[in-house]
Amino acid sequence: MANILEVKNLCKSYGKFDAVRGIDFSIAKSEIFALIGPNGAGKSTTLKMIASVLQPSSGSIVIDGVDAVKNPEEARTKISYLPEEAGAYKRLSGRGYLQFMAGLYTDDPSKQKEYIARAVEICGLGRRLDDKLGAYSKGMTRKVMLARALMSNPELAILDEATSGLDVINALEIRDIIKSFTKNGMSILVSSHNMLEIEYLSDRVAIIDQGKIIETGSTAELKKKHQAENLEVVFLKLKRHNVSSRT
Amino acid sequence: MKKFLLLLKKELRELLTPQLIVPFVIIMVIFSVIGKTAGKQIATQAAVVDQILVINHDNGELSKIALSQAGQVAKIEIAETSDDAKIVDEMSRRSISIGLIIPADFGENALLDTATTVQTYSLLQNFSLTGSKKTSTLSGVVNIINQSVSNSLIQLNSPDADPVKLKNPVAAIDFVSANGKVASGSAITVLSYISQQTSYVPIVLFIVIIFAAQMIATAVATEKENKTLETLLSLPVSRKVIVTAKMISAGLISLLMAGIYMYGLRGFIGGVTTAVPSAASAMSDGTSNIVKTLNLNFTTTGYVELGIILFLGILLALAIAMILGVFSEDAKSAQSVIAPLMVLVMIPYFATLMLDIGQLSPLLRNLLYAIPFTHIFLATPNIMLGNHLSILYGSIYLLILFILFVFIAAKIFSSDLILTMKLNFSKKR
Questions:
Q1: Inside any domain, residue B389
Q2: B89 and B135 both lie in a single domain
Q3: What pLDDT, on the 0 to 100 scale, is given for residue B249?
Q4: Which residues of chain B have a CB within 8 Å of the CB of A55?
Q5: Looking at the partner chain, which of A51, A76, A89 has a beta carbon nearest the beta carbon of B228?
Q6: Minimal-distance CA residue of chain A relative to B10
């Protein structure tokens, strides 16, 4: 099966600082792939480059056969991106926001209706959807944002810290929503520094540290390989090994 | 197109907030009401005949005739005191702002062909428009006394002579020329008429450009502040469409704000100034006919030319402000970031208001012409004087700059700079 995403030797520098230093990975269709690592590892920068919000300094990104570096506009038709800190247009209602976004995803009115219906189902906010976004709680806003990211059924959904700042119940709901969407053929690229959440959610994981991927594999494979109870321990062992091999 | 309209609608909704519009409209309505109310008050005060306190030490016929004729422009009040040093006290006590002392040898000196002097006193109690009217009244009284004494002396020496003809033997017939045409009339009245018709135009241009720049810079900065920018940039919408929607929405809102502002300003200035009678401000049918003969009135072509150059100027201001807005991280700092643009607008605004650009040194003149907004503020006089080539060159210059800055803005929006560009004056550690 062809991969939905191919990333090769991806680099990003800000002046003298190398935020991403040659990343390679691929995502298959209907796969949930996670990028995990500590704060400042380069996860968000990598996701932003794939979402064509940032331009890579070098390397290639191919999304469903489209070179995202050379043809970012075409690539954006295949993806949907949920930033870590995604704000809302506070003067729009939740429903108004989803209608606005549906209109930007497609000109076809019947598809717009379909997207909005899907988004309303994902949100699960009922009548609160007609309230202004400015009146929403953080959890409600994040649900609307997630619904926006998934409503168009993209080939690849890129979700950066999808459950960031949410309470346990809301976080659980969102994880379940994310997991359910791969059944529709959607591939999902998530990032998180919450290893336990990723263990539950993802099919494969890449551990990133200081701009480089230091390990890739399924959760089970990594735990077995490094004789760890969970991904947190896997990461700590890899980090220690990384540090000692450099010294 | 549908996506553009959708974005435009969103931008308009974001900019046109009740917090922006309601206080603005209220202030402008109040402005207009105050102008009309103040105008009525000024008219009332202007209709009141000024009083002048007079100490007349001369009891001759000349001074009596002079004072009687001066009574045409002011009500003569004879002072209770004959002590010159106490005239100001009596003026203050009797609330009379202007005073006059005629010396004892007034008539005698006039008959001996010796220069004679009167003393005038002005009590400054306010600095208002109606306050200055009293000073004109005082000058009018002295002028009438002068005319009266000279007329009396002429009649004494030449009883058959007409004093008016003797003093003004030469009359002038005025002609004024513009646009290769000549018309009979005074240049002062023509200039005054044109000034009344066009004084609002530079103010409108100034306000529209400043508002437009503020709107667009705020629109960009607000996306960053509200953290909606990254989502917007990741959507399947062309960056050019995003940039265009922001620019057009800001332009439309600024035109609306300018319209409301001009309603209020026109009401205020109209209310205040038309209440004060002034020879220069009187608009007669004759003056408007002179203006038409000289082709100094605005034709349809003139309005089209003005519209085009204003449109290009606004677009240029929007493009520059958009680029500057990228430097700001929030809506508050966006206001200060567009300061350089405001300076670029203010310099030609004040320069064209106060100076004759054509008389400046070549260096200064060219520096002013290099500022693109100079051509907008010069548009009205150029149109009236038929300098269509200047309008054309100015428009081309604005268009070229607009294309350049939009290209830069589109490049910024298409790159990381839209997210990473910011002003940072903190010391690097």
A1: yes
A2: yes
A3: 87
A4: 415-416
A5: A89
A6: A100
Contact between A211 and A242 under an 8 Å Cβ cutoff? The reply is no
Residues B86, B227 share a domain: no
Can you tell me the distance from the alpha carbon of B114 to that of B107, in angstroms, rounded to the nearest whole number?
Answer: 10
Domain definitions of chain A by residue range: 3-86+155-167+174-246
Tell me, what's the pLDDT at A245?
A: 62
Count of domains observed in chain B: 2
Q: Are residues B196 and B64 in the same domain?
A: no
Contact of B3 with chain A, judged by CB distance below 8 Å, is answered with yes
pTM for this entry: 0.75
CA–CA distance, B132 with B124 (Å, rounded to integer): 9
Q: Do B239 and B120 fall within a single domain?
A: no
Pick the residue of A66, A81, A89 with the most B CBs within 10 A to test the interface with B by mutation.
A89
Collect the ranges in chain B with pLDDT lower than 70: 42, 45-46, 128-131, 196-198, 269-285, 422-429
Of A4-18, A72-86, B109-123, the one with minimum mean pLDDT is B109-123
Q: Is residue B427 in a domain?
A: no
Predicted pLDDT at A169: 86
B159 — contact with chain A (CB < 8 Å)?
no
Find the mean pLDDT for residues A9-30. 92
Please give the average per-residue pLDDT across A174-197, as a whole number.
86
A3-86+155-167+174-246 topology per CATH? Rossmann fold (3.40.50)
Residue A242 has pLDDT above 50, yes or no: yes
Q: Does B424 touch chain A (CB under 8 A)?
A: no
Looking at residue B426, what is its pLDDT?
45
Per CB-CB distance under 8 Å, the chain B contacts of A154 are: none
B120 and B24 in a single domain? The answer is: no
Full DSSP string of B131-198: HHHHHHHHHHHHHHHHHHHHHHHHHHH-TTS-HHHHH-------EEEETTEEEES-HHHHHHHHHHHH
Q: What is the DSSP string of A19-70?
A: EEEEEEEEEETT-EEEEE-STTSSHHHHHHHHTTSS--SEEEEEETTEETTT
Distance CA B300, CA B295 (A): 12
Q: Please write the tens of the pLDDT for every residue from B20-74.
A: 778 778 877 887 788 778 777 767 766 778 899 999 999 788 888 888 888 888 8
Length of chain A: 247
- How close is the nearest chain A Cα to the Cα of B312, in Å? 29
Tell me what ipTM this predicted complex has.
Answer: 0.91
Contact B235 A104 (CB under 8 A): yes
- Is residue B288 classed as helix, strand or coil in its secondary structure? helix
Q: Is residue B426 part of a domain?
A: no
Contacts of residue A53 in chain B, CB cutoff 8 Å? 230, 233-234, 419
Nearest residue of A to residue B3 by CA position? A104
CB pairs under 8 A between A and B: 71
Query: What domain range is B77 assigned to?
Result: 51-166
Residues B116 and B245 in one domain: no
Q: Cβ contact (<8 Å) for B228 and A101? A: no
Please indicate whether, in this complex, the C-beta atoms of B236 and A90 are within 8 angstroms of each other: no
